[in-house]
């Protein structure tokens, strides 16, 4: 192999989110001896751009709103200019234009990763459903972030089992090592060091189930004196959730912190991490909580059950069930031995199975397989 392999990840933007953080993490750690990664954002970059390692290009196409029929041709020119060997698209937002641009530019290898948006496509059974089925014919490999999502795509979209594999999400374990002063972080938020604190991290969108969590707080408030809930993240539901907090009389119990860069510090303030999602492919925030040794309560949906083994390293509850959610939270707040056992088991699981280094190694194996297949890799 005479020169490095050029790999370009396509993403809509680099806003703060699990998908975007995962892409930044994996390009930063890719073996620079053999691979030259880059990122192409369909609109602008975003806050995560500054976390991309020096020397890795981030291209911003500033896509027009709505349908932009020039985009595949812009991508074609970009791929040719950068001599791209592997195009790696992510979710529906970059799939069609990315694959068309790659084929027009004669890119040797096209890989697509699904992080969960395909669920909406499957449910719709409309043009996007058929378009996705069709465009997958021109992709060399499909990867998913969880086994449950892989099985769903095989069953619902009729994808050949050999064409779709799982590359589990991974997180930067070292970033969440518990060398953080819990009391100081609580003081910054105006929290007492001894009061019970639960929290969640995620976009304020319906699928994350924040309303269920707020309704569960009605029960928790009655049974756990002084309980506080940290809602970390932003999104289109913010105003609606703020109104619901007032309506339910929870203003003194809920802190809406918006988007934050200090997630490791905020996780350290929590006694229990809660993720009440209606669906998850495989949540990075659960992995981050486990890496931070925070016990987890989450819903038994999607890939959550691949991470949380009920009663072993966390608790699972049905979605949209405030009563059972509250009950599980109370269990962990009141049973310190169980909580401490979950802290140890959770951290161990992430170290063994869900590290970002393991995810990068899986990427590299996949790249080498396809590079050998097309006669590019001889190292």
Based on the model shown, name its key terms.
379 residues, alpha/beta, seven-stranded parallel β-sheet, six-stranded parallel β-sheet, 13 strands, elongated
Please give a structural write-up.
The structure is a single chain. With 379 residues, the chain is of the alpha/beta class. 43% of the residues lie in helices and 16% in strands. It has 15 helices and 13 strands. It has helices spanning 18-29, 71-82, 91-104, 118-124, 127-135, 147-157, 182-188, 210-223, 238-247, 263-268, 284-291, 304-307, 322-334, 336-353, 356-373, and strands at residues 5-11, 35-41, 58-60, 86-90, 109-114, 141-144, 164-166, 197-201, 228-232, 254-258, 272-275, 296-299, 315-317. The strands form two sheets. Strands 3-2-1-4-5-6-7 form a seven-stranded parallel sheet. Strands 10-9-8-11-12-13 form a six-stranded parallel sheet, sandwiched between helices. Helix 11 links the parallel strand 11 and strand 12. Helix 1 crosses helix 15 and helix 11 (284-291) crosses helix 14. The radius of gyration is 21 Å and the shape is elongated.
């Amino acid at each position: 192999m005479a020169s490095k392999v050029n790999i370009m990840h396509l993403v809509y933007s680099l806003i703060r989110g699990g998908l975007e953080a995962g892409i930044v993490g994996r390009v930063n750690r890719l073996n620079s001896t053999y691979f030259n990664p880059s990122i192409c954002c369909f609109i602008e970059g975003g806050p995560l751009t500054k976390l991309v390692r020096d020397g890795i290009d981030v291209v911003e196409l500033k896509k027009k709103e709505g349908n932009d029929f020039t985009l595949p041709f812009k991508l074609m020119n970009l791929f040719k200019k950068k001599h791209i060997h592997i195009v790696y698209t992510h979710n529906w937002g970059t799939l069609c234009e990315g694959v068309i641009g790659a084929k027009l530019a004669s890119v040797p290898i096209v890989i697509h990763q699904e992080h969960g948006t395909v669920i909406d496509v499957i449910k719709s059974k409309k043009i996007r459903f058929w378009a996705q089925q069709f465009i997958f014919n021109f992709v060399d490999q499909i990867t998913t972030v969880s086994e449950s999502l892989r099985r769903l795509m095989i069953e619902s979209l009729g994808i050949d089992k050999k064409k779709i594999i799982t590359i589990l999400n991974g997180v930067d374990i070292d970033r969440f090592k518990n060398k953080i002063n819990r009391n100081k972080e609580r003081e910054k938020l105006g929290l007492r060091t001894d009061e019970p604190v639960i929290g969640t991290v995620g976009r304020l969108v319906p699928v994350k189930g924040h309303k269920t969590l707020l309704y569960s707080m009605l029960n928790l408030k009655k049974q756990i004196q002084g309980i506080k809930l940290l809602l970390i993240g932003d999104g289109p539901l913010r105003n609606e959730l703020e109104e619901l907090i007032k309506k339910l009389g929870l203003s003194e119990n809920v802190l809406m912190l918006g988007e934050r860069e200090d997630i490791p510090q905020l996780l350290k303030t929590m006694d229990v991490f809660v993720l009440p999602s209606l669906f998850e492919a495989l949540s990075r925030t659960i992995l981050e909580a486990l890496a931070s040794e925070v016990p987890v309560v989450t819903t038994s949906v999607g890939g959550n059950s691949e991470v949380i083994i009920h009663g072993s390293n966390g608790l699972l509850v049905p979605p949209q069930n405030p009563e059972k959610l509250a009950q599980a939270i109370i269990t962990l707040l009141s049973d310190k031995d169980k909580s401490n056992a979950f802290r140890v088991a959770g951290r161990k699981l992430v170290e063994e199975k869900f590290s970002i280094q393991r995810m990068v190694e899986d990427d590299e194996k996949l790249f080498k397989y396809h590079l050998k297949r097309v006669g590019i890799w001889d190292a």
